[in-house]
Design brief:
The complex is a heterodimer of chains A (802) and B (281).
Chain A (H helix, E strand, L loop, with lengths): L23 H5 L15 E7 L5 E7 L1 H5 L3 E6 H4 L28 E2 L5 E7 L2 H8 L3 E6 L25 E9 L2 H6 L3 E14 L7 E7 L4 E6 L4 H12 L6 E4 L15 H13 L3 E4 L2 H7 L2 E14 L4 E11 L12 H9 L9 E8 L14 H19 L3 H8 L8 E2 L5 E2 L4 H11 L2 H13 L3 E13 L17 E7 L5 E5 L8 H13 L6 E5 L16 H28 L6 E4 L2 E4 L15 E4 H10 L13 E6 L7 E14 L4 E12 L6 H21 L28 E6 L17 H18 L8 E2 L3 H7 L4
Parallel strand pairs in A: 1-12, 8-29, 10-11, 14-15, 20-21, 27-28
Antiparallel strand pairs in A: 1-5, 2-4, 2-6, 3-5, 7-15, 8-13, 9-10, 9-12, 13-14, 16-17, 18-26, 19-20, 19-25, 22-23, 23-24, 26-27
Helix pairs in contact in A: 9-10, 10-18, 14-15, 17-18
Chain B lengths: L6 E3 L4 H7 L8 E3 L5 H6 L7 E4 L9 E4 L2 E5 L4 H5 L2 H6 L1 H6 L6 H4 L4 H7 L5 H8 L3 E6 L2 E6 H4 E3 L2 E2 L6 E7 L6 E9 L6 E10 L7 E8 L6 E2 L1 H7 L8 H6 L14 H18 L1
Parallel strand pairs in B: 1-3, 2-3
Antiparallel strand pairs in B: 4-5, 5-10, 6-7, 6-10, 8-9, 11-12, 12-13, 13-14
The structure holds flavin-adenine dinucleotide (FAD).
The site of flavin-adenine dinucleotide has 29 residues of chain B, from strand 2, helix 7, helix 8 and strand 10.
Chain lengths: 802, 281
């Protein structure tokens, strides 16, 4: 009984248990190894001069003083790197019509955003590099900047890339059914809103960083990388530095958060690699917080004009919107800056039965930092638009917001189903999660309490969201468009001589606990204790080939590859064991590191009574590795197995959640206190409840950031005005409510493991619930707000107070 | 970013420190708790050639009785103010405000002298000193001077301090009998600088009319400011009785907007914090 049906029930399975993270001790004791911890002999340090203006032509750059500064080894301008770096272009074939010009790591003739790298100084210390950088004189002839995305398409707007004739980067319209006819129906109520979403960014604890070493004797480049897609980076470095791919090694050790920020191609990191190669000495670059704010990709930045039509009995008759989003002067390479808008088109209303739908997105260039994929790409926009319109419509027709959802959510027994835009949905549980949410939060009692409190001048509100999340993407996400981004991942598991196993996987750990869940799956499926598993991820030299961890795919895809590899290794071991023990593989099992007779411990688990133990794994391994003479010569044992896995048939594995926020608005100050937050989430098989809850909670907090606090504030001339942790507000412990997380488990049938993703749900769903809650609280005051972040000043404006 | 190169000195006597601070070529700069100065240096917004660390100067430390009032050495840290009985009794307004000044980790190092010398218009302490009618003693090699708080804070990060001078002490006069205090601020996140805040003191028995109001705002203008018209509107009344009139008189404040609040919002929130402070007075 080693089949897929029993792994979750085996008494020694670790799947579904809150196993503590094996790396927690190491990290808490300060023994983590982040890029900045790397010290190599002869290592140099890079600092950058960055554009002080949003748009301008470089007239002159005098680097002579910097070059002569003691301790400076090299100074490179953008032009100096032209011979060493092949430009990159952030477009993909499946995003038809997307355009973006070739980009170089540093500006060559025109600067297009404040913070764009201009000159790189390489010196014996970062402080010296900065001293020298301060001596560089840059003359820039300023050009009119395009900062307001809503005016970027005006006929008289300056055009950032002249060859295109306009600032339009991409445009897509999707349509289903007959929305015009539905909106025109006499029996529908139409609600229209404009939603505004500010720019924010990921704010990783560990900033972007690279240490690059080039060994000319082997023409070998090693890139220590703080990121989440090592093989993608390997391809990019090889292609753009002109090296054979196998001569580039990318290593991610510990990563202090990534959130999608570190999955892109950054000029300063590419320039660092180029410098290391030219100089033949290791070069380190660590972004400081100012550089992070100026250049780590920003996210969101949308204005959406949305409309919904509902019938008197609460059925959605049609949904339509226009989205405009500003992406900075280039589309980010290699994932592009159009995926977010595309997701907004694909996901808006995807939880609901929706026949008539029209959506248009326009993606425009502007002279601000690049915008691209950040945790929950497009999701908060889609959820805010759909569920914001739906709740407002419910109030318009006098229906409860839970009831209107019940009337429109796709039935739990209606799957497989498709969205209005044709995406396949399966194994979702909107009704079940909503029912559970309503019970957990004591919805009716809370509503009654709020009504009561309102009489006392206390304005509380509840807001909900029923969301979908895209996870476990298939090749349809990037690969189809020509991106060097694997959709499949692989795991190799090897039996060690001592009876432990070593797991090596192409998915990555960036703080969320991927390595822990891989160990849990491997240990449980194979049959050893957690402390007999070692995990390696993040090294292109030693792991199987794969995409890394993004789009909430680490557990679902890497986990399934690990499960399959553990099965395979177990079969290998049992074949060898059966030969040695003169038994049959079917009659044996592995329990807690011992080969046991099946049934002798009551059914393939439970720690194995001594009577049933036939031999230990280490005995078996040592026999194979050291004393092969004891084995029959026709037995050629393999104690290492590799399996790869990708999602086929569907483009993504969707997950769903129902969430709710309870807030109190102080109408005198515009301050909002988040009293409670509930998330009932269905990520399929829960592998480690503590880790999943951590993902949901952390995600909700990032959603709270976008909803109330975080915004990259640009002046009209394109200066980022709050590029410090003092002025850019991220929510901290005091701003976090208790977040109650519950699970409904509907395993995906696309894999044996059944795990979908869980990493982005909180970020994708919480802003909609929060905005709805604020509007619920404001409604008796005759006010509403549809702009994020919902700052005190904006709420006071919504109230007409200021 | 890394700080630019600087010389570091840690004198052991006040005289030695004052002598070092005369080095204007090196832009000799005092280092107190470093909670504002060091971040500015790390952003290279400040690039002093010499840091004169005040941490060994016992003359600048300690809280002591001073003729019924209190004398607070410039190097006294927030955490020490919070733990002081004398402060709780003689300057309860400071005790009320301390939990709102930054975070515990910063209060462990930040000093009252640093806050006063920095004169951040959003900082609480300068406004508290206005409301308390405190004086600020400064000293250079040439001798010492005492400024009233109202004459010390001249603008954004601008004070009456001259080159080579140190803030040595802050003196808070003995409170009159029945002197009452209140403090209220609105900050976007716990521990942040406020969007608007006010410190109020007045004399009068509970429930009775009060006189001698001092209403001092922070984080609404380019410096801490007293709202004198509002004070006049409150004079002689029980705090809440004069509240509406006081709020109506706030237009006199030279409001300055910031990233979190424009002028209209500052004005509005100034009224809110005043009412809330008066409720607590
Ligand atoms: C995250 C964060 C949040 C904060 N929030 C708040 C807040 O809410 N409210 C608030 O008021 N403050 C806040 N602060 C600022 C903190 O309180 C200040 O650091 C402090 O007030 C300055 O004191 P310091 O001892 O650290 O001075 P330092 O940083 O050492 O010095 C500040 C300036 O004063 C000068 N100086 C220092 N001492 C003297 C002296 N005796 N004589 C002459 N010049 C001197 C220095 O040369 C320097 O220019 C915050 C700081 C941080 C980092």
């Amino acid at each position: 009984m080693t089949g897929p049906l029993t792994i979750f029930d085996r008494p020694n399975s670790h799947i579904g248990k809150s196993v503590p993270r094996p790396d927690a001790n190491r990290l808490l004791q300060g023994r983590g190894k982040f890029v900045d911890d790397i010290q190599l002999p002869r290592m140099l340090h890079a600092a950058f001069v960055r554009s002080p203006v949003a748009h301008g032509r470089i007239e002159n750059m005098d680097v002579s003083q910097a070059r002569a500064f003691p301790g400076v080894m090299a100074v490179y301008t953008g032009a100096d790197l032209v011979a060493h770096v092949e430009p990159y272009v952030g477009v993909l074939d499946h995003l038809a019509g997307l355009r973006s010009p070739p980009q170089m790591p540093m500006a060559v003739d025109v600067v297009r955003w404040t913070g764009e790298p201009l000159v790189m100084v390489v010196a014996t210390s970062r402080a010296i590099a900065e001293d020298a950088a301060a001596l560089i004189e840059v003359e820039i002839d300023e050009l009119p900047p395009v900062t307001d995305m809503e005016r970027a398409l005006d006929v008289d707007a300056p055009v950032i890339h002249e060859q295109y004739g306009s600032n339009l980067a991409w445009e897509r319209t999707v349509e289903a059914g007959d929305p015009d006819a539905a909106f025109a129906r006499a029996d529908v109520t139409v609600v229209e809103r404009q939603f505004r979403f500010g720019r924010h960014t990921g704010v990783t604890l560990e900033s972007r960083a690279a240490v690059v070493e080039y060994d000319p004797s082997e023409n070998m480049l090693t890139f220590w990388y703080s990121g989440q897609a090592p093989h993608m980076m390997q391809f990019i470095l090889a292609k753009h530095l002109g090296l054979p791919e196998e001569n580039v090694r990318v290593v991610s050790q510990d990563v202090g958060g990534s959130f999608g920020i570190k999955i892109h191609t950054y000029g300063d990191e590419i320039a660092t690699a180029a410098a290391a190669r030219i100089l033949g000495r290791p070069v380190k670059f660590v972004a400081d917080r100012l550089e992070s704010f100026l250049t780590d990709i920003h996210a969101r930045d949308h204005v959406v004009d949305g409309r919904i039509a509902v019938t008197a009995d609460g059925k959605i008759a049609a949904l339509a919107f226009e989205d405009i989003t500003g992406i900075g002067p280039y589309s980010m390479y290699p994932r592009t800056s159009a995926i977010e808008a595309n997701q907004v088109l694909n996901l808006t209303g995807a939880a609901y039965t929706l026949e008539n739908y029209r959506a248009r997105a326009r993606v425009v260039f502007q002279n601000k930092n690049l915008m691209s994929q950040y945790r929950a790409v497009g999701h908060p926009i889609a959820m805010v638009v759909a569920d914001g319109l739906l709740e407002d419509a419910a109030h318009e027709i006098g229906m409860d917001v839970v009831e209107i959802r019940r009337r429109n959510l796709i039935r739990d027994d209606a799957y497989p189903s498709t969205t209005a835009t044709g995406l396949k949905l399966d194994d979702l549980s909107h009704h079940k999660t909503l029912d559970r949410l309503v019970a957990v939060m004591d919805y009716d009692a809370r509503r009654a309490e709020h009504a009561h409190l309102r009489d006392a001048g206390i304005y509380r509100g509840i807001g909900l969201v029923s969301m979908v999340e895209i996870t476990n993407p298939s090749p349809m996400f990037y690969g189809i468009g020509g991106a060097p981004i694997a959709s499949q991942d692989g795991t190799t598991i090897r039996l060690e001589a001592g009876g432990a196993i070593h797991v090596s996987s192409s998915v990555t750990e960036q703080g969320q606990g991927t390595n822990t869940i891989l160990a849990q799956i491997a240990a449980g499926v194979f049959g050893v204790a957690m402390d007999r598993v070692k995990v390696t991820t993040g090294d292109t030299r030693s792991t199987p080939y794969g995409g890394g961890t993004w789009a909430s795919r680490g557990a679902g895809i890497g986990g399934e590859a690990t499960l399959q590899a553990a099965f395979a290794l177990k079969q290998q071991v049992l074949v060898v064991a059966a030969t040695i023990l003169q038994s049959s593989p079917d009659g044996l099992d592995i329990v807690d590191g011992q080969i046991v007779d099946i049934g002798s411990d009551g059914g393939g688990g439970g720690g194995g009574k001594s009577a049933s133990v036939r031999m230990s794994l280490s005995d078996l391994a040592r026999t194979v590795y050291y004393r092969g003479n004891e084995l029959p010569s026709d037995l050629t044992p393999e104690l290492i197995a590799t399996r790869h896995y990708r999602v086929t048939d569907v483009p993504f594995v969707f997950t769903n959640a129902a969430m709710a926020a309870e807030v109190e608005v102080d109408p005198d100050t515009g301050f909002v206190k988040i009293l409670n937050f509930w998330a009932v989430e269905d990520c399929g098989r829960v592998i480690n409840p503590d880790l999943v809850d951590g993902q949901i909670r952390g995600g909700v907090v990032q959603g709270i950031g976008g909803a109330f606090y975080e915004e990259c504030l640009y002046s009209e001339d394109g200066q980022l005005e709050n590029a410090t942790m003092a002025d850019y507000l991220v929510p901290m412990a005091f701003e976090m409510p208790d977040i109650i997380v519950e699970h409904v488990e509907t395993p995906t049938r696309t894999s044996v493991l059944g795990a979908k993703g869980a990493g982005e749900a909180g970020t994708g769903g919480s802003p909609a619930a929060l905005m709805n809650a604020v509007n619920d609280a404001l409604r008796p005051l005759g006010a509403s707000i549809h702009q994020m972040p919902m700052t005190p000043e904006r709420i006071l404006k919504a109230l007409g107070t200021v | 970013m890394k700080a630019a190169e600087f010389r570091y000195e840690r004198p052991e006597s006040l005289a030695e420190a004052l002598a070092l601070l005369e080095d204007t070529d090196l832009d000799a700069t005092p280092l107190a708790g470093g909670q504002s100065l060091v971040p500015m240096m790390n952003f290279r917004l400040a690039m002093p050639g010499m840091l004169v660390d005040l941490s060994e100067l016992d003359d600048l430390k300690g809280i002591s009785e001073d003729g019924g009032g209190v004398r607070i050495g410039a190097m006294t840290r927030y955490v020490d103010l919070a733990g002081s009985d004398l402060i709780a009794r003689r300057a309860p307004l400071i005790a009320m405000a301390l939990p709102y000044i930054a975070h515990a980790a910063i209060r462990n190092r930040g000093t009252i002298g640093g806050s006063v010398a920095l004169a951040d218009p959003a900082a609480e302490m300068p406004a508290l000193l206005l409301a308390l009618d405190a004086t600020i003693t400064v000293q250079s090699s040439a001798g010492s001077k005492t400024h009233g708080a109202a004459d010390f804070f001249l603008g954004m990060y601008e004070t009456a301090l001259e080159d080579g001078e140190l803030v040595t002490a802050i003196t808070i006069p003995a409170p009159a009998p029945h002197r009452r205090f209140a403090f209220y601020e609105l900050a976007r996140r716990h521990g942040d600088y406020a969007m608007a805040g006010v410190a109020v003191s007045a004399t009068g028995a509970v429930g009775a009319g009060c006189t001698d109001f001092r209403v001092a705002y922070f984080s609404v203008a380019d410096r801490p400011v007293r709202a004198t018209a509002a004070e006049a509107a409150l004079d002689g009344k029980a705090p809440m009785d004069g509240a509406e009139a006081a709020v109506a008189a706030l237009g006199e404040i030279p409001f300055a907007g910031d990233l979190n609040a424009g002028i209209a919002t500052k004005l509005h929130l100034s009224g809110v914090v005043l009412k809330r402070a008066l409720e607590r007075l």
